[in-house]
Amino acid sequence: MLIRLDGIIKFKGAQFVVLDVNGVGYKVFVSPDTLIKAPKLEEKIVLWVHQRVKEDALDLYGFLNYAELEFFEQLIQISGVGPKSSLAVLSVAPLDILKRAIANEELSYLTKVSGIGNRLAAKIILELKDKLGAMGFEKDGKFFEEKEDALEALCSLGYSLKESREALNKVPDGVKSTGNIVKEVLKMMQKNKRR
């Protein structure tokens, strides 16, 4: 069973990359977030992969780090949650925010995903909450609230949800307080505009 692929990106599709590993091309489904963060064509990438075998297909799902793969595998074990929905969930917010949202029983993060309604979101929370609590994602974590508030502030300033989430994902862990997080994101966005 495959767990990791180390190769060159030969093609980027809307939901997948084609990875050349020693002359063999692998089609690997990835989240939109991973597509954005992935290197350019002909550059090297390492993906942690989940191999899904069905009667009529063998699909690969790739992640930039092992924590995302682990979370994906927890999601797809829940009845009613498929791999495509799980990838979409991982694109809603950075992984730490998602885990805290589940620990805090925040349905809104999950219901942003097409095909996940309130009932399925509640089921995901019910099945994952205890596991995440055991991993140290305690309820009402202050840092989670600060990032969530920063996301709302950026959206109110006119930045898109996607753009804001991507920028928040790049803020160093040492930056605390909503105001400082927003300032850090605005600095990054100004640098990107100058390029």
Could you describe the 3D structure shown?
This protein is of the alpha+beta class. The chain has helices at residues 32-37, 66-76, 83-90, 95-103, 107-111, 118-134, 142-156, 161-169, 178-194; strands at residues 4-12, 16-21, 24-29, 44-53, 58-63. The chain folds into three domains: 4-63, Nucleic acid-binding proteins (OB fold (Dihydrolipoamide Acetyltransferase, E2P), Beta Barrel), CATH 2.40.50; 77-134, DNA polymerase, domain 1; 142-194, Helicase, Ruva Protein, domain 3 (Orthogonal Bundle). The chain has a five-stranded mixed barrel. A hairpin with a 3-residue loop joins strand 1 (4-12) and strand 2 (16-21). The termini are far apart.
Quick recap of the structure?
The chain has helices spanning 32-37, 66-76, 83-90, 95-103, 107-111, 118-134, 142-156, 161-169, 178-194; strands spanning 4-12, 16-21, 24-29, 44-53, 58-63.
